[in-house]
Please model this.
Amino acid sequence: MSRKEIKAEAKDKLRGNWGWAVLVFFIDFIVCSILAGGVTAGTHNGSWKYKMSLLNPEYYYKYGTTSTIMGIITGFIALSLVISFLNFRDGKKDGVLKAAFSSFTNGRFGPEIINYLLSTVFTYLWTLLLIIPGFIKSYSYAMTPYIVSDMVASGKTVQATSGITASRKLMDGHKMELFVFNLSFLGWFILGLITLGIGFLWLVPYYQTSRSNFYRALAGNQFK
Model:
């Protein structure tokens, strides 16, 4: 399936379902924004106190630790978009709230968060060596949440690195293909920025549905 066909199929799938898709993304966005805002408000409470805390090394430790934990939590919530739109693409449209928090349902939490954390750590370690290897590895691990979702749905046992290993093999020879696929949304991304973020309410569902099509075209049902 060509890139054009993948995106056209996503548009067809979303026709008549835009309200659901936008609402699922909006809920996840609001939750992640509240969590991120809470960290900022908690650490920058009071201008004098904030300025003084900058002189204290303990501030950087506490702020860094809190930010890292919140980053992991919000990242995992964002994984719900991957799972819910993959299900949507496959004809399994969950209710809005269940879809918005799908990474926490149906036994996905354990396998998804372990593979998510490890893929994040591996990518970070590669990036410490050099930026480019880390960037390449991020594409190697890009299909991990999709694969884990398929494996969990089919009742397969998911080990700590099952999704990561399978994604690395699946993306062998296809990393540039996914990179070009992502670049094809650059114009839409710029439009989203121009509209002060409002355009992302439609762009993200369109992108997630298209990316689910990309995964299914590449993997088929081999992990189910």
Notes: Residues 57-89 form the longest helix (33 residues). The CA atoms of residues 80 and 101 lie 5 Å apart. Residues 46-54 have pLDDT under 50 and may be disordered. The chain is about 75% helix and 0% strand.
